[in-house]
From TrEMBL:
Protein name per UniProt: Histidine kinase
GO (cellular component) term, any one: membrane
Pfam families, alphabetized: HATPase_c, His_kinase
Naturally occurring in which organism (per UniProt): Hungatella hathewayi
Domain Signal transduction histidine kinase internal region: 2-73
Length: 218
């Protein structure tokens, strides 16, 4: 099956930026730059790559700004993090699948869209949660996601995995798989939700994992 080279897309976006700037379409140029930046982070970063929390926040805010421009409605995002956390490191685009999942699965049918993205740290672990005020999920749906995660992790070396990965919540599965390969059993992933009351997804790494990319200073 033929595929478009992603580098071609990236270069084309920057060509469009130049055209927009020449025509003084500043807002359009800025939005395309946002798309190009996210694509660049995705293309040129390895699973273990890291950047500062400040850079991660900027990338996610760009993504939310693009959605606002596309759909004509904003998503209010509240960031909560301890002092000094912005200069610590985080795996590149770790938050992206969490935010994307919240937007398209949780907030798609909600008028006043609200996200809370919270960083927490104690002597045992460091974690990040993304909460939304969306439609929520039942316990049965949550258990179904957990069961698929475990099933997929058991099949990571089997050919039928690719076909099963076509189901919903692909972003969450990719994130769970990434955490599994980077941190093994030291990583954890939890979903708390109730129908009509929103969803909270938390990912974290226990600090006794020596090679944690999420804990070092940059």
């Amino acid at each position: 099956m033929a595929k478009i080279n992603p580098h071609f897309i990236y270069n084309t976006l920057y060509a469009l930026i130049c055209v927009a700037e020449k025509k003084h379409e500043t807002e359009i140029a800025q939005k395309i730059k946002g798309v190009a930046n996210i694509l660049c982070l995705s293309l040129y970063s390895k699973p273990e790559s890291s950047h500062t929390v400040r850079e991660e926040i900027a990338a996610i805010n760009q993504y939310l700004d693009i959605l606002k421009y596309k759909y004509g409605e904003g998503i209010q995002a509240e960031w909560i993090l301890p002092p000094g956390m912005e200069e610590e490191s985080i795996n590149v685009l770790l938050l992206y699948p969490l935010v994307e999942n919240a937007v398209f699965h949780g907030l798609s049918k909600v008028k006043d869209k609200h996200l809370v993205i919270k960083f927490e740290e104690d002597h045992e672990k460091k974690c990040i949660s993304v909460s939304d005020n969306g439609v929520g999920m039942s316990k049965k749906e949550i258990y179904g996601i957990y069961n698929r995660f475990e099933k997929w992790l058991d099949k990571i070396e089997e050919e039928e995995l690719e076909a099963e990965m076509e189901h919903i919540h692909m972003g969450l599965f990719n994130l769970r798989l990434r955490l599994y390969f980077l941190y093994g059993e030291q990583a954890y992933f939890t979903i708390c939700s109730k129908r009509g009351e929103g969803t909270k997804v938390t990912v974290g790494v226990r600090k006794n994992y020596k090679n944690s990319y999420n804990i070092k200073k940059v």
